[in-house]
Amino acid sequence: MERILxxxxxxxxxxxxxxxxxxxxxxxxxxxxxxxxxxxxxxEADLMLIxxxxxxxxxxxxxxxxxxxxxxxxxxxxxxxxxxxxVYIANVVKCRPPNNRDPRPDEIEACKHFLVDQLRLIDxxxxxxxxxxxxxxxxxxxxxxxxTRGQVYPWWGRVVVPTFHPAAALRSGPAMEDLIRSDLELxxxxxxxxxxxxxxxxxxxxxGEALQEEVAGQLGLFE
Length: 223
Ligand code: URA
Prior knowledge:
Layout: H1 7-23, E1 40-41, E2 47-51, H2 56-61, H3 68-79, E3 88-91, H4 105-122, E4 126-130, H5 132-139, H6 145-148, E5 153-155, E6 158-163, H7 166-172, H8 174-197, H9 209-218
Parallel strand pairs: 2-3, 2-4, 4-6
Antiparallel strand pairs: 1-3, 5-6
Helix pairs in contact: 1-4, 3-7, 7-8
């Protein structure tokens, strides 16, 4: 069993993973990228947010959710008392799909080991999946986000709270923003409940290879 890592060891491992992603050529998406977009935020976050994949602004700046969808996300986080530096933000795929098309199953498959490692290292109390790609991947469901959102799903002793992708709210308007805000409130409330119920759950990072395989299996929606 691996011992519990210190925050600085976690940051160090994340740095190594980010440099591996920067060099990765495992799928065709590397051909069009300016740079890989690994993550932003705190390695000690209780809330990890997962989007779909970098867009144009993210590809240029090397950070997730820095375009219009990201500005909306920052605003909604602020409305529930959170700042970007307090959460951890990543995407299902780390390189920008051309013309912002959806990531393809083989691209998700090639990239998912990075997400598995991010989940294990961050070991958040709550994972918020934003949009269909992240939600279907983690919950291993074909049910769409409209029906999955607004609820909590037990996941490896942690909790997944799905919500709409902020880009969908930009297209759809304030009613969807209200729903994302309410899902964020649910995530914050769930974190508080998790803290009160079990302040020190067994860390994902301490469960070893078996869990890695199982998590990888759970993420294997498209296998
Ligand atoms: N949309 C995403 O899914 N991720 C980003 O980083 C930006 C936009």
